[in-house]
Amino acid sequence: MIRSAVAIHPACLGLYCGRTVLAVNGSVETYGDCGVCPRGQRTDENKICRECVGSPDRYDWLYLGFMAMLPLVLHWFFIEWYSGKKSSSALLQHITALLECSVAAIVTLLVSDPVGSLHIRSCKVKKLSDWYTMLYNPSPDYITTVHCTHEAVYPLYTIVFIYYAFCLVLMMLLRPLLVKKIACGLGKSDRFKSIYAALYFFPVLTVLQAVGGGLLYYAFPYIILVLSLVTLAVYMSASEVESFKDLLVRKKRLVVLVSHWLLHAYGIISISKLDKLEQDLPLLALVPAPALFYVLTAKYTEPSRILSEGGNGH
Question: GO CC terms for this protein (predicted)?
Answer without folding.
Answer: membrane
